[in-house]
Amino acid sequence: MSRKLLLEHINVPGINTLEVYRQKGGYRAVEKALKTLTPEEIVEEVKKSGLRGRGGAGFPTGMKWSFLAKPEGVARYLVCNADESEPGTFKDRYLMTYIPHALIEGMIVASFALGAKVSYIYVRGEMMPQIRILEKAIAEAKAAGWLGKNILGTGYDLELYVQPGGGAYICGEETALLESLEGKRGNPRIKPPFPAIAGLYGCPTVVNNVESIAAVVPIINDGGEEYAKIGIGRSTGTKLISASGNLVKPGVYEIELGLPVEEFIYSDEYCGGIANGKRLKATVAGGSSVPILPANLTLKYANGEPRLMSYESLSEGGFATGTMMGSGGFIAFDEDQCIVRNTWNFARFYHHESCGQCSPCREGTGWMEKVLHKIEHGHGTISDVDLLWDIQRKIEGNTICPLGDAAAWPVASAIRHFRDEFEWHIKEPIKSQTQNYGIANYAVPIEKAPVTEEK
Amino acid sequence: MSEKVKVTIDGITVEVDNGTTILNAARQIGGDIVPPAMCYYSKLEGSGGKCRTCIVKVTKGSEKDPRPMPKLVASCRTTVMDGMEVLNITSPEVLEARAGVVEILLINHPLDCPVCDQAGECDLQNLGYEHGLQKTRYEFERRTFERIDIGDKIQLHMNRCILCYRCVFTADQITNKRVHGILNRGDHSEISTYIQQAVDNDFSGNVIDVCPVGALTDKTFRFKNRVWFTKPVDAHRDCGHDKCNGKVTLWYKGEDVLRVTARKDQFGEVEEFICNTCRFDKKATSDWVIEHPTHIDDTSVIASNHYETLKPLHVIQPNQALQAANEVELHKTVKY
Questions:
Q1: Residue B312 sits in which domain range?
Q2: Looking at A50-115, which runs of residues are DSSP E strands?
Q3: Of A42, A94, B243, B306, which one has the greatest count of Cβ atoms within 10 A?
């Protein structure tokens, strides 16, 4: 049984109330931080912990905090990004539903560290129940004196607000989120300036994921060095993984980073293997925007060594044979799943969610979706595969925000690893409507061999 | 902050003010190395960064930090650093990416240039000629919208729009009351006025001039003539409006003024915004004091009919046979 930091008390009845949360040691971190530590010490502690952003990019949180500009007489803000809407990711929703106080506690500590007097939790509009839960929890905390004026008699004031979004995926991009929070159309801003210099209302702002903020609580309780001992290499601590797809036990799991992927999929402690006794064909390891990998490359590197659940290990091999940690949305596909259909589905999502500000993403995502739709429904031609490859290359890296990249990567990786299946769809247009391509050689185990350059 | 910084673009070094963007530094050098800009407009605050046609490669970040930038950057929104080295037309990667952006801009464009009033002075048309492919690889239905009248003088033809946001910034910054913006998301987004209410302002006509394509057109000029058959003449009048100085370009066909626009500089940007009275209501020669024929850049098709010297067009330059065939034309110094 591995260590649980965030979900330790998840099964305690009534943990969503302040009373039970306090009994289980809640708000210790606030007491410790506000009474014994200075803001600089907290930032230092988070830096020592090596905590990396849990929202997708994996940027070190402590470093992000230390970049925050601190001009005199200008307000600073902390914004929590709870606009979780990536297909395959649902960890933040789980955390907010069952332990809302963990997030609020983290918000208080982080706001104190950053010197923010007003902080916001920007929740995706579809998560109305979670918004109510958070509002209730904030009211409880405020009544008990954990929020508001003069918290714990330390003279620190903090107001915490929950803001529902309009339900756009793009508002999970930090600058689009700030625009939306300001009441404008949620278009990503052109960087620089970065939010650390000019964010919300032109003031220095830090935007963090729900899980990153909640992870500050154990860091303060146990100390950054203690936290850094968990995990492997530069991937420290624990991570919530939302496992979905053809698994025996899908759900949200807290893992210690560095767990072998094979153990995560097949052990009974976690996903319990592939449902209905089928075989694994492919996985998307970190939410829909990361590259899809065939089963053999998911479990092992191209040189045959086992792949681990960590930021570095998942991206081992670059885009050629690796993927990314992303936001931890682990999707498993069994042998009966159609990769072409899935790629089309992802492309459809990005087409729908593109904000329409910059041209490659606005036009390119729609184009990819139409070509994929054509292939999936048996009307493709063999040149369409190359066309798709060309379109994704023209989108990737040429857009304002990472949504363009996120739309391009799944298509690129699907073509890279599953080109046979695309070509089969084109050559067998009638058969492909009633049958699946099957597992082919995607699960052929990789033998440990001297490294060969893969193209 | 007034210190000068050195930047090298395609091997040409120039000293510019600190805080200048790469695009503006390139404009100070001038010539072929100026990246095309479809959405950036120097007179509109906050514009740029959207169309991605001005992307360039930064091979050296600055003197202090010589690392190259990992991705191609939008030159209109990236400020220069001391010692920065930029590749534009000398980098095949940039040219390929730009051709990609042009192709992507054109996939939903109706390509109705033969009936479009903007043809001949259209930035997208120029860009298409320079970078575009011979034929499109897009084989699906293009998106279409209904035409919308914004007031009685301006028509919005959303099919042609490339969503550069210039008119939105104009409506925001030039006019007092914002009634103009973007509706919907992604490739369904459309420029719209608030519940199709007219943009009711003395300066609303400027959205026509800032539009890089034929999406916003002057209804008083609609289908009157092709721009290359008209002769532009600089003129001015004593405009009573306190923000408008009445300096315009008149577009003549024979004796008639077909339309009035603001004067444009060599990068296709208006020099000064003009009011609607000058633009729409003063269409008699007697209203104006004529100055001189407008200087037309020789890359424009408008120039191929009249005025000044004619430099060989891009297609002719490298081709000896074409040069020989056009010898007489090329050696004319003045063409009326």
A1: 306-331
A2: 77-82
A3: A42
Q: Which residues of A touch B187 (CB under 8 A)?
A: 351, 354, 356, 362-363, 365-366
What's the CATH fold of domain A339-434? de novo design (two linked rop proteins) (1.20.1440)
A interface toward B at CB cutoff 8 Å? Answer: 168, 170, 185, 190, 351-360, 362-367, 370, 387, 390, 393-395, 397-400
In chain A, residues with a C-beta closer than 8 Å to the C-beta of B103 are 394
B44: helix, coil or strand?
coil
CB < 8 Å to A395, chain B: 104
Say whether A421 sits in a helix, a strand or coil: helix
Strand order in the sheet with A329-334: A251-256, A238-245, A329-334, A280-284, A292-294
- Whether residue B288 sits in one domain with residue B265: yes
B71 and B37 co-located in one domain: yes
Q: SS3 for B267?
A: coil
- Cβ A30 vs Cβ A108: under 8 Å: yes
Q: Which of A438, A417, A427 is nearest to A338 (CA)?
A: A438
Among B87, B102, B117, identify where a domain stops.
Answer: B102
B97 and B26 share one domain: yes
CATH class, domain A232-334, is alpha beta
Q: Who among A168, A190, A364 is closest to B185 (CB)?
A: A168
Closest approach of B9 to chain A, Cα-based (Å): 20
Q: Choose among B106, B219, B96, B122: nearest CA to B162.
A: B106
* CATH number of the domain that residue B29 is part of: 3.10.20.740
The CATH T-level fold of domain A18-229 is: Rossmann fold (3.40.50)
Residue B36 lies in a domain: yes
Mutate to test the interface with A, among B72, B93, B101 (most CBs of A within 10 A): B101
pLDDT tens digits for chain A (455 residues)? 578 899 989 899 999 999 999 999 999 999 999 999 999 999 999 999 999 999 888 899 999 999 999 888 899 999 999 999 999 999 999 999 999 999 999 999 999 999 999 999 999 999 999 999 999 999 999 999 999 999 999 999 999 999 999 889 999 999 999 999 998 889 999 888 899 999 999 999 999 999 999 999 999 999 999 999 999 989 999 999 999 999 999 999 999 999 999 999 999 999 999 999 999 999 999 899 999 999 999 999 888 889 999 999 999 888 889 999 999 999 999 999 999 999 999 999 999 999 989 999 999 999 999 999 999 999 999 999 999 999 999 999 899 999 999 999 999 999 999 999 999 999 999 999 998 888 888 888 877 655 555 54
CA distance B56 to chain A (A): 10
Whole-angstrom distance, CA of residue A132 vs CA of residue A197? 32
In a domain, B128, yes or no: no
Residue B286 and residue B310 in one domain: no
pTM summary value: 0.90
Paired with B284 in beta bridges are none
Choosing from B59, B85, B102, the residue where a domain stops is B102
| β-sheet bridge partners, residue A309 | A259
Domain boundaries defined on chain A: 18-229, 232-334, 339-434
Number of domains in chain B: 3
Provide the residue type at A331 as one letter: I
